[in-house]
Amino acid sequence: MQKEIRIGTRESQLALWQANLVKDLLTAQGYAPVLVPIKSEGDIDLVTPLYEIGVQGIFTKTLDIALLSGRIDIAVHSLKDVPTQLPKNIIQAAVLERGPVKDLLVYQQDTAFLDKPGYIANIGTSSLRRKAQWLRRYPQHQIHNLRGNVNTRLQKLASELWDAAIFAAAGLERIHLRPTNSVILDWMLPAPAQGAVVAVCREDDAFCREACAPLHHAATALCTQIERDFLRVLMGGCTTPISAYAYIQEGTLHFAGELSSLDGQTFLETAQQLPVAQAGDIGKQTAAEILAKGGDKIVAAIRNAKP
C-alpha cells in the first residue's frame, strides 16, 4: 500500500482549493494524499485588524505546529501569508506555478464614484498596502476594515453601504466567485508573492520532499523569492505597506517594489530590469537602497505610530 501523505490546510473555500490542487497533483504521480482541515487563529478572529493581532504567521502558525508535531506531513499556504523566515525544521517543498497576481475592485453599483470630484467613497480592505496605495490616488476616500475569507468579505460588502472593496484576483477567480461588477486594478502593485501557492514539509522528511519536487515551478520560485527578499530586508509584514512584483519575460527579469507610509503620501519605489542569471539578489539590493534613501525613517514612523 502506498504511504499516505496528510495535507494540512485551512478550512476556507480558497484554502481547500489550494490544498486540493496539491492533492490532485500528488495523486497524478501515484501518491495517496488526504486532506486534514485545521482552523487557524486568523480564521477565528475576523474583527481585529491584522496589524493589531501581530500578524506574522497568523494564517500559518497552526499548520506549522501540526506539521512539526507530526499530525500532518505537508502544509499548503498562500505564499504571501507565509513569514519570510520559516520555522526551524520546516522548508519549502514546492512553489507552484503562479496564478493571477493583481488586485481587483468589486463595486456595488458602478465605478462612476471614482471620477466624482470631492466625493468621499467608502472602500473596504484590511490590507495596509492596499489602503496606502488607494489613499495616495484617492486621499479623500474612507477605508473600512474588511476581514475574513473571500466568501465572508463578499457578504460583508453586500451588507454594507460601501462603494466597493478590494480583493486579490486570484482568491476570487480560483473559486469562481469573481463578480461581474469588478475591475482589475492595473495600477496597484501587489503584495510580495501574491497569487502563489507553496507546499511546506519537515526538513527531514525525504519522502515528502521527493513527492513534491515535480510540483515545483522554478520561475515562480525565483520571482517570489526576490519579492520576499525585498520584504524581509525592509523588515516588513502586514504591518507595513510594502509591495513587490517580479516576472520573467524573454530572459529578462522585471522587478518593481515600493515602501510606503500608512497614508500613502510618502513612498519610495524601485523598478529594475536585468538578465535572469544576474537577478538572484535584486530584491535584497533594492530594499537596502530604499532603506538608505530614507526608507528606514518610513519604517520607524510606522512602528512608532499609535494604533
What does this entry show, briefly?
This protein is of the alpha/beta class and 307 residues long.
What does this structure look like?
- The protein is of the alpha/beta class and 307 residues long.
- It folds into three domains: 4-96 and 196-215, 3-Layer(aba) Sandwich (D-Maltodextrin-Binding Protein, domain 2); 103-184, D-Maltodextrin-Binding Protein, domain 2, CATH 3.40.190.10; 230-304, 2-Layer Sandwich (Double Stranded RNA Binding Domain), CATH 3.30.160.
- Helix content is 34%, strand content 24%.
- The chain has ten helices and 13 strands.
- The strands form three sheets. The protein has a five-stranded mixed sheet, with helices on both faces.
- Strand 6 (122-124), helix 5 (128-137) and strand 7 form a beta-alpha-beta unit.
- The longest helix is centred in the last third of the chain and has 23 residues, at 282-304.
- Mean pLDDT is 91; it is low at 42-56.
- Its EC number is 2.5.1.61.
- It is an enzyme of class 2 (transferase).
What's the level 1 CATH class of the largest domain? Alpha Beta
User: Average pLDDT across residues?
Assistant: 91
Tell me the distance between the termini: 55 Å
- Going across the biggest sheet, name each strand in turn: 2-1-3-10-4
Contiguous runs where pLDDT drops below 50 for at least 5 residues: 42-56
Radius of gyration: 19 Å
How would you sum up the global shape? Answer: globular
Helix/strand order, N-terminal first: EHEHHHEEEEHEHEHEEHHEEEH
| Strand segment tally | 13
The CATH architecture of the largest domain is 3-Layer(aba) Sandwich
Return the CATH topology of the largest domain.
D-Maltodextrin-Binding Protein, domain 2
User: Which homologous superfamily in CATH is the superfamily of the largest domain?
Assistant: Periplasmic binding protein-like II
